[in-house]
Amino acid sequence: MRIRDLKFIDLCDLTDQMNQMRTLNEQWLIGEILAYQGKYKEAAAHFVKNSLHDKAINLYTTLKQFKEANDLIKKHGNKSDPVILMKQAEYLRDTG
What is the DSSP string of 4-50? Predict the structure, then answer.
């Protein structure tokens, strides 16, 4: 079994739990599947298209694509998130 398979198993388990609690959002699931497949740009676009902006911002931040995260925040009228700025500063400090 590969590590990538474990990620999909975790996603399946989370999906099952959310489905049992009746909180499963199918659009969220599609975006997560795209991200797990490594299709990050498509996943972010899917999240934005379905008004899951926080998910898209989180995805960009996790990928260290801070410019895209901040652009998305500005585009949708949100104030800059200090957590993103702190993560960006930590990343820049650690990478020199």
Answer: HHHHHHHHHHHHHHHHHTT---HHHHHHHHHHHTT-HHHHHHHHHHT
